[in-house]
Amino acid sequence: MTYQTQVAIIGAGPAGLSAALEVAKQGGKVMVFDENDRAGGQLFKQIHKFFGSGHHGAGVRGIRLGQQLLEQCIQSGVEICLSTVVFGIFPGNELGIVKDGRSHTVKADKILIAAGAGEKPLAFPGWDLPGVMGAGAAQTMVNINRVRPGNRILTIGSGNVGLVVSYQLLQAGASVAGIVEGLPKINGYAVHANKLMRQGVPVYLSHTVIEARGDGQVEEAVIAEVGPGFVPIEGTEQTLSVDTICLAVGLTPSVELPRMAELAMVHLPKMGGYIPLHDSHMRSSNPDIYVAGDVAGIEEASTAMEEGKLAGVSMAEALGLVSAQRARELAGEIEERIGELRIGSHGDARRMAKEEIVRGYEAWLAKQK
Amino acid sequence: MACKTEIKEKKRGPLAVIECTEDIPCNPCTTCCAQKAITFEGSINSLPKLDEDKCTGCGICVARCPGMAIFVVDREYSETECLVSFPHEFLPMPQAGEEIVASDRQGKPVCAGTVHRVVRPESFDGTAVVTIKIPKEYADQVRGIRTERGV
Ligand SMILES: Cc1cc2nc3c(=O)[nH]c(=O)nc-3n(C[C@H](O)[C@H](O)[C@H](O)COP(=O)(O)OP(=O)(O)OC[C@H]3O[C@@H](n4cnc5c(N)ncnc54)[C@H](O)[C@@H]3O)c2cc1C
Ligand code: SF4
Ligand code: SF4
Questions:
Q1: Residues 6+ apart with CB under 8 A from A178
Q2: Are A166 and A139 in contact (CB under 8 A)?
Q3: Would the N or C end of chain A have less CB density within 10 A of its end CB?
């Protein structure tokens, strides 16, 4: 069958739900689609308390932020379609969706792609052995399915994902043999690393994994120190007895749908890879398609929520649900809060990268004229 | 003996110790403290600062800090002992009176101690604040209890 809506949103994560709420508040009809059987995106796996200020729900566990957002959406009349995969975006603002094994069409005036990100792989001898997995997958296993992926874990990557997931594996009763980081310094927040270190977890800086060994399952990991250019230094190899290797070597925006919609992109390694160009209010190179959250550059749930709101306000304005003046005011408030999140030693680089995306969009737009 | 320059005596009793070392945009420590003992100079991105005169050592910030980076230390609990409080989110939950091995910032064992108190009201949302009693000389070294989770 064919559904008709003013706004169709792909992804019920913090970005998608925040956008939906903003449009619904202005009286728009919104449908949100997510392949999972629960709404919240990454938030429903985040059992730790979040950083940020009061506006961003700081000190609240991610999972509760997700629940709050979901309740607000439901109260505001947002229609959320779970266990529904969006398999394509077609000309004429049409989405192809699959629900309960049947495919349907959704026609929308405006589309927001808030599809989040996927984990980057890392190849090394033995990486295809059972027991080598993405840190996000390990997190889903412990926090959603309540299954411990293994008893003795080695984590590759010291970004916040690697640090947070390792801590949660400890909480689930596993032991963590170490965190391996190629750089000479910890990549994520020091406070996250300190929590792990207080539990006696060693951090191997300037190290990499060179091999996973085992008979049908990971039994050992070989790690080594790296020199310039991340080349392993011969003679520094160590063998650790582990049954699970968690890869936390970065996320990459899920740009399959933006590609299908032929959105103009830019390649920005510091934001995770290819990113759809967008203006400062989240509109992509297709004036009917918006992007927000990790798909528009890997950041955090707090920034994803604000970008979602920004996209929501711009879609509401484009649909004539809110005056240009009011939209400017709302957007101004949101931008101020985003600004607060993109400062400091971790945030500055993200702010500059986001500015580069917007400049890329403006350059693209100038070429069209 | 009269002394002309007034030397401010170091406040006794429990005091927060903030071990937050990076300029991350975060501020629950300031907003949760009823005594307004923690402030930021400038934006929420700067490092939190403690006003020792205002801090009562209540331990609320220990539970609320998402970085689990705040401790409460009572250096002069008795002639020979001090108290160290830290956030704890592991099972089994320590019990008051339990004998433990106190550990340092690297999880290395430092000394023996006992669990003095475990506070876990609903408002802490699952985080317990565990206080242990250990020999005084380790007040600056001990930041938790030894578990078998790391190496
Ligand atoms: C371990 C870990 C710890 C983190 N800790 C923090 C933290 O402390 N603080 C913080 O602010 N952030 C944290 N984050 C980051 C935060 O979770 C993400 O930045 C945020 O969830 C991104 O939101 P999003 O809405 O863009 O995407 P997501 O939350 O990933 O949601 C996207 C949703 O879209 C769905 N989807 C994608 N494609 C389709 C399709 N074709 N059809 C249907 N559905 C689709 C996905 O299944 C998903 O549910 C953490 C992330 C991880 C992995
Ligand atoms: S211990 Fe209590 S009084 Fe002291 S800073 Fe923390 S919350 Fe404030
Ligand atoms: S709440 Fe904790 S992590 Fe956040 S600024 Fe305060 S001390 Fe640092």
A1: A154, A155, A201, A202, A203, A204, A223, A240, B151
A2: no
A3: C
Question: Quick check: is B30 in a domain?
Answer: yes
Average pLDDT, chain A: 96
Residue A87: CB atoms within 10 A of its CB come to 14
A5: nearest Cα among A23, A364, A256: A23
Per-residue confidence in pLDDT tens, chain B, 151 aa: 444 444 445 557 999 999 999 988 888 999 999 999 999 887 777 899 999 999 999 999 999 999 999 999 999 999 999 999 999 999 999 999 999 999 999 999 999 999 999 999 999 999 999 999 999 999 999 999 987 665 4
CB neighbours of A359 closer than 8 A, spacing ≥ 6? Answer: none
Q: Is residue B48 part of a domain?
A: yes
State the average pLDDT over residues A178-196: 96
pLDDT value of position B6: 46
Q: Is B59 in the pocket of ligand 2 (CB under 6 A)?
A: yes
| Of the options 3.40.47.10, 1.20.1250.20, 3.40.50.2300, 3.50.50.60, the CATH number for the domain spanning A121-247 | 3.50.50.60
Structure tokens at B8: 């401010």
Task: Tell me if B80 sits within 8 A of B97, measured CB to CB.
Answer: no
Closest Cβ opposite residue A199 in set B31, B66, B147: B147
CATH class, domain A2-118+251-368, is alpha beta
Residue B3 belongs to some domain of the structure: no
Q: Is the pLDDT of residue A312 over 80?
A: yes
Cα(A339)–Cα(A321) distance, rounded to whole angstroms?
26
> How many structural domains does chain B have?
1
How much helix, strand and coil, in percent to the nearest 5, is found in chain B? 10, 30, 55
Domain that holds residue B98: 15-146
Q: Strand A244-247 vs strand A132-134: parallel, antiparallel, or unpaired? A: parallel
pTM over 0.90: yes
Q: Is B16 in the pocket of ligand 2 (CB under 6 A)?
A: yes
Contacts 24+ apart (CB under 8 A), B91-94: B91/A171, B91/A173, B93/B118, B93/B120, B93/B128, B94/B118, B94/B130, B94/B145
Asked if B64 has any chain A CB less than 8 Å from its own CB, the reply is: yes
Q: Which ligand is nearest to the CA of B19?
A: 3
Number of A:B CB contacts under 8 A?
126
Residue A310 to residue A140: CA distance in whole angstroms: 29
Kindly state whether B149 is in contact with chain A, defined as any CB-CB distance less than 8 angstroms.
yes
Domains in chain A: boundaries: 2-118+251-368, 121-247
For A81-132, write each residue's pLDDT tens digit: 999 999 999 999 999 999 999 999 999 999 999 999 999 999 999 999 999 9
Averaged pLDDT for residues A151-174? 97
